[in-house]
Amino acid sequence: MKRQKIAVIGAGARGFLSYMPYVLQHPNEAEIVAVAEPDARRRADFAQTFRLNENQVYLSWEQLLEQPKFCDALLICTQDRMHFEPTMQALRKGYHVLLEKPMSADPLECSLITKEASKRGLLLSICHVSRYTPFWQRMKSLIADGRIGDVVSIQHNENVGYLHYAHSFVRGNWRNSDQSSPMILAKSCHDMDLIRWLVDSECARISSFGSLSHFRLENAPTGSTERCTDGCAVESSCPYSALRFYLQDIKDNPFAKLIADPPSTDNRMNAITSGPYGKCVYRTDNNVVDHQIVNMEFENGATVMFSMCGFTRDINRIVQIMGTKGEIRGDLVKGEIDLFEFSGGIRSVIQTKVGDGGHQGGDDEIMRQFLSDLRDRRFESNLTSADSALESHFMAFAAEQSRLRGGEVVDMKAFRSTSKTASPSLGRQ
């Protein structure tokens, strides 16, 4: 088996912790030959893990891409608004690319990236990792096999989890759309992608409602302070206490290890007292919605209602798919699919494997598939190709436009046409 030579741009939570375990477990499939990472500690840890010398380590993506082409593909895992430039430069140099989602926070840039890859005949795969999980794969196969007939309607709930929401979207890197991207894109482009994939039709019309209703200064409890460590009178009873949340054992709390590197107790305490993760959740510069619904009508007549909410007990996706011959109900965390077929009144409860690793095994599977596609030179019509991702990205952009305009119905045909030549202003949340 020919080993693919890969360079990584962005050695953070996704580029290093999520995707590199597969490479370490399957050294016969890939060789990591370079990294670009501005954080000195992450850069050093990555270089040590893959035994890179100083000539294989770069402080920025610009430095790496200044070099003549030296490997097969790049894995680009920078922040949302830092995807376009390195991806375009990589494609122009002839690199195949595995790009973290979202493709870009700008619909025109998404279109330009897709066109560039197609023009050059290069593999550009987007990290819509959910498509690779056993749960969603089985869901798709049941529909494709006609077990519930034609899809008529879908109700899809994304339960973000109250602590996950507070960590990532109130205090964390995705709290402000001006710095990252709107919630429907940053978090829920997975869901837009899954919906588009399951319905298997172009979206015709879309509308959306939602807001940032709770995590605002006017809702701060009496006696609260700028930081959880400033003598807050309600810290001990606040469900979002940074002290209680981030000082847990990192084995029990995966978010705790992300606020400091290395995540020692002292380093985490320092991050709480001086960084964004110790801010009162009612006093940050956050502006992304904490709840949103999206209504969709597809060209084949199917309708979909999607709901995202940050006020849920667990992190999960719950789905109900109603067809002309049956119904499917699914619980992602349980890996359980409840199939009911109208003919004969037959009910089947299907237990899918809950995969190891991130996103129920999806992180490992997308790496396996990307490396396989490179080896076998399958550069077009891949499961998570840029072409397939572009449509679901447009759905997310259109939903945000609708929300910002009071829920007006967006005609997707007109939106696609406009977005391929100019970027509609989505404004603040």
UniProtKB/TrEMBL annotation:
- Recorded GO terms, molecular function? nucleotide binding
Cited InterPro entries: Gfo/Idh/MocA-like_OxRdtase_C (IPR004104), Gfo/Idh/MocA-like_OxRdtase_N (IPR000683), Gfo/Idh/MocA_Oxidoreductases (IPR051450), NAD(P)-bd_dom_sf (IPR036291)
Annotated Gfo/Idh/MocA-like oxidoreductase C-terminal domain residues: 140-333
What is the top-level taxon of the source organism? Bacteria
Q: Where is the Gfo/Idh/MocA-like oxidoreductase N-terminal domain?
A: 5-126
Tell me which family the UniProt entry assigns to this protein: Belongs to the Gfo/Idh/MocA family.
- Name of the protein described by the UniProt record: Oxidoreductase family protein
Task: Tell me the lineage of the source organism.
Answer: Bacteria, Bacillati, Bacillota, Bacilli, Bacillales
